[in-house]
Amino acid sequence: MTTMTATDCSRNFSSVLNKLEFEKEPVEIVRNKHVVARMIPGVSVMSAREAMSDLFGILSDEEGEAWLKDCRSADQSLTEEMRDPWE
Fold it and tell me: Under 8 Å CB-to-CB from 29, ≥6 apart: which residues?
């Protein structure tokens, strides 16, 4: 964890954000010799493709086929024309 004064943090805020985002390192802010804040990295964002890539090699062939069938049926239901609920 990086520790810095409030003054250093305000003068180098962009680099503090870079440390949080890219290095995933928490930052502790000190004022008058005591900790006033701790900043922690945010939750990483991943695409659906990245999230689903972990399934490769985990699902059996049967589970994979069932999952694919479910996805395709969900796609079909989304493409159906929506009806007007007030007619």
Answer: 4, 5, 6, 9, 35, 36, 37, 38, 39
